[in-house]
Amino acid sequence: MRLITGPAAPPGAAAETPPAPADPATLKVVPARHPARWAAAVAVAVLLAQFGHGLATNPVWEWGVFADYVLSETIVHAVWVTLQLTAYATVLGFLLGTVLAFMRLSRSPLLSTAAWTYIWVFRSIPMIVQLVFWFNLSALYERLGLGVPFGPVLWSVDSDSLIGTIGAAVIGLSLHQAAYAAEIVRGGVVSVDQGQSEAAAALGLPRLRQIRRIVLPQAMRAILPTAGNEITGLLKGTSVVYVMAIGELFYQVQVVYGRNGRVIPLLLVATAWYVVLTSVLSVVQYYVERHFARGADRTPPPTPLQRLRRAVRSLRAAAARREEPVVPLSLLGEKR
Question: Which of 104, 129, 140, 193 has the most CB within a 10 Å radius?
Answer without folding.
Answer: 104
